[in-house]
Amino acid sequence: MLDKKRCLLIVTDVQGKLAEMMFERETLYNNIGIMIDSFKILGIPLLWLEQYPEGLGPTVPEVASHLEGLEPLPKKAFSAMKDTTICKRITESGRDQIVLIGIETHICIYQTAADLVSKGFEAHIVKDAISSRTESNKILGFDKIDSIGGSITSVETALFELLVTAEGDEFKKIHKLIK
Predict the structure, then answer these.
(1) For 100-138, what is each residue's pLDDT tens digit?
(2) pLDDT digits (tens, 9 = 90+) for 28-62
């Protein structure tokens, strides 16, 4: 089960024209926004990553609008764990439950999850806040993540695990987001 004190959210590579080509793009953007806003409500830290921003461009406005006040961390490796700055930020966070959202399931999400698991982290993959250009590659990515020990979850499952109970201000605010 996810625990607020152990989690770190990583928003991965939702950039430019590539993001516009994602399978079920509108649902993806909406769910990524819900996750970011909910983690902010819960006071859980997050990292915002961009893959080769000089080539792919910036994060799409539909997602970047939820990340105001934060700075993206650029990377060139497909796995975030292969970037020394990002790997250091993850390790130094003291968090061992890493929640991944973004694109693409079968490339950056899968490779990051595989490296996280190999280094002893829990990789929690939010199925409805992740996508690829094709449905088949999205499915393939989830299959590969499952085979290496990653945990597949959903927006609501993850958020209600973190909330624990249906009471309090955090619950009320997050419940409004997912209605």
Answers:
(1) 999 999 999 999 999 999 999 999 999 999 999 999 999
(2) 999 999 999 999 999 999 999 999 999 999 999 99
Q: 7-178, which class in CATH? A: alpha beta
How many Å separate Cα 40 from the centre of its chain? 13
Chain length of the chain:
179
Task: Sketch the domain layout of the chain as residue ranges.
Answer: 7-178
Contact 75, 50 (CB under 8 A): yes
Q: DSSP per residue over 72-118, as a string?
A: PEEE-SSSGGGSHHHHHHHHHTT--EEEEEEE-IIIIIHHHHHHHHH
Could you tell me which of 58, 25, 15 has the C-alpha nearest to residue 133? 25
Among 87, 82, 85, 84, residue whose Cα is nearest residue 98: 87
Distances (CA, A) of 71 to 1, 30, 47, 64, 82: 29, 21, 9, 10, 19
Cα→Cα distances 53→77, 84, 149, 151, 153, Å: 12, 17, 30, 28, 28
pLDDT at 179 over 90: no
Q: Give me the residues paired with residue 7 across strands.
A: 97
